Amino acid sequence: MEKRTENAAQIGLFGAAGAAGQSIARALSAAGRSYRVIGRGEAALKASFGHDGLADIVTWNPDAPASIAAAAEGLQTAVYLVGVPYHRFDQHPVLMQKTLAGLRAAGVRRLILIGTVYPYGRARSQPVTESHPREPHTFKGKMRLAQENLVIDAHGRDGLETLVLRLPDFYGPGVERSFLHGVFDGAAKGTRAQMVGPIDVPHEFVFMPDVGPVVERLSRTPEAFGRVLHLAGAGTITQRAIAERAYALARREPKLMVAGKTTLRIAGLFNPMMRELVEMHYLLTDPVVLDDSALTGLIGPVTKTSYEAGIAQSLAAAQRAAARHPGAQAA
């Protein structure tokens, strides 16, 4: 484990190298707060955070409670962002159990889990509030529910306070693990956008750069702990509308290749990722749209980037990436 000890970080981001971790880190840095980034790979952490003097870089083994405790040493608050391969969601509750043991051993006082809508299952009503029943009908939803329950049940035990913040699907500049990544990549390169449909159903996406400031505020809001809260996007929009806007900004005609559920099943015979998307396809036909009035009632108004601005920023990032690899562009 490597650690830059010149910073007295009180908040640590476990699984920091992803898009959410980078968004939260930027918000903490903007607020002048020292923070610790914790991940499996030192190179990825250094590439993302090595430029920031407020960042304390630590590597860990999330399978080992002793390593977790060492990574958490001296922290007051932990933000949990750890991802697992899409076909290994069974690891979510296992890793959370180990993380909780490690955090307790290190004397961490607060834990924020960045969650998803998966535990709800199919929405009974729209928009969905935090009181909506959690009745997942998918394996991934059940694993996320088990993870959440561990965090919720840990509140008030051994001096630990916990918070679950649920997010909808997300997008943003350079965010590759998004349903919309293929849209911006295709518009930037002049190639076909690889999409999963249906693409004409109103859907909710949160702009990833908007997440960090919310988590930063929640981390210093004692009243938020012991709760589950939602962060919603800037309303709903269809994937087609996003694609049309992105291609228009790129001054290109839209080129869309849309895979439906049947196509996913067939592709899944050869591609494990496509196979895993099949059970979550219901979120595209019957999206879960979140109500975040409880969050705004607690911390006040939340800045939400409009889809128009978010699409423009995401496309610009994709165009910069395409310019770095000009051989990938189509005529």
UniProtKB/TrEMBL annotation:
Residues that span the membrane, as ranges: none
InterPro entries: Epimerase_deHydtase, NAD(P)-bd_dom_sf
Domain NAD-dependent epimerase/dehydratase: 14-221
Species whose genome carries this gene: Paraburkholderia bengalensis
Pfam family, one: Epimerase
Annotated protein name in UniProt: NAD-dependent epimerase/dehydratase family protein
